[in-house]
Amino acid sequence: MGVLKDAAAKIREINRTYAVPRIRLTTGTKVVLIALRVYLLTLVGLLLYSLVTRLGY
């Protein structure tokens, strides 16, 4: 059990270290990332719509 507790403590320490991103994004980069997120969500929505209509639900 000591090994598992040590591993969990190490993981918590790593998560605390990287909880806040250190890079700064420009406005253009933020806009592009939001556009990509919308695009991917649209693709997933279209895939789900296609699946539902083909299965006849």
Provide a descriptive summary of the structure in words:
The chain is an all-alpha fold and 57 residues long. The chain has a domain at 23-57. It has helices at 2-17, 27-55. The longest helix is centred in the C-terminal third of the chain and has 29 residues, at 27-55. It is flat. The N and C termini lie far apart (49 Å).
Q: Given the C-alpha coordinates, what overall shape results?
A: flat
| Series of secondary-structure elements, N-terminal to C-terminal | HH
Quick check: average pLDDT?
A: 92
- Count of DSSP helices? 2
End-to-end gap: 49 Å
Please tell me how large the radius of gyration is: 20 Å
Helix content: over 70%
Percent in strands: under 5%
Task: Report the major sheet.
Answer: none
Which terms summarize this structure?
57 residues, mainly alpha
Secondary-structure map with pairings?
Blueprint: H1 2-17, H2 27-55
Short description:
The chain has two helices and no strands.
